[in-house]
Amino acid sequence: MPFPPKVPAFYILKNAKNQLDQVMADLLSFTSKVSLFALRFLDGLEILIFETR
Against a cut of 0.85, is the pTM above it? Predict the structure, then answer.
């Protein structure tokens, strides 16, 4: 048995939900960082292209 009987099911579910929320928050922050980096990279690339013409 993975959990002792004294631990209530709602506590286990709540804990799992908290972990899921944390994972989602981390994923969201990672995604926004990546998109921000991509935007900056594209801006830099655009400037580079216009400068070399």
Answer: no
